[in-house]
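Treating backbone geometry as a discrete language has practical consequences that deserve illustration. Part of our work consisted of pairing the sequence of a single chain with a tokenised description of its backbone. We regard such an encoding as a compact summary of how the chain folds. The amino acid sequence and the backbone structure tokens for this protein are reproduced below.
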Amino acid sequence: MTPTLVRNHRDADSSAPADAGTRARDWAEIQERMLAPLYEAVYDRLEVGPATRMLSLGCGSGLALLVAAARGAQVTGVDSDRDRLALARARLLPDEGAEGAPAHRARLHESGSPSGGEGAPYNLITVFEPIGCAAGDSEGLVPALESALPLAARGATVVLTGWGPPERCATAPVLRVAARLTESARPPRPGGWRPTLRDDLEDVATRAGLKPDGSGRVSCPFGYADPDSAVRGLLSTGLFDAAVRATDRSQVEKEVAEALHPYRRPDGTVWMPNVFRYLVCTT
């Protein structure tokens, strides 16, 4: 799967405060697909297929689950965002509850980890929400992993993902807007962008009791049809939430749009090359 420019969404006012449902749709329709090359690279390396029983922590609106299911994997997703999870259900379980609907290979759960009793243990746990560019963005990950690991088979594979080095990520200067606006608040607010550290993923693995067993880097360009789509997609990630709380959404949108100028192409599209990293671990 290759990255694509997302279509223009001219039916929404990007300056209006986004409710949770709109933000989830922006994630699903604009931003989530930017990480598709990461999903594909991990699945290729691990030969994900019919023998795979995958648990995805922070599954979002389900694109990574959909890609794995298309390869024949049995997939289970967990996410605390109800709106994103509703979109995942629409993608993966379109006939759920319908009379005569076929049995599905996908299961979705809100918050926490699924309980036992869903069949054989998982042999793959994935965390495709990249860490490493926002202060404290890994704090909840270790407890989530500790809760999920009892559901995994002995020697199961766990995949963690993170942002690559700032010098390899064109989006990093745009994300710095979040840090600047957050730090400018009086009093300063917690959160915001921070430089990615070399051992972010290894640190999480160590704290969760996992054994690193290889890593890789994947090119994931962020391509948008226009600056409006870029702003909406980036704000749907949650990486600018602290900045919005410190100032207001309109101010953040304005400054993000200005930061995107170097990445606008003559045809009006926005293109930002990025590199993401994944760490393969065993339980």
User: Anything to note?
Assistant: The CA atoms of residues 133 and 195 lie 6 Å apart. Strands lie at 53-57, 74-79, 106-110, 122-131, 152-163, 211-219, 222-224, 270-272, 275-282.
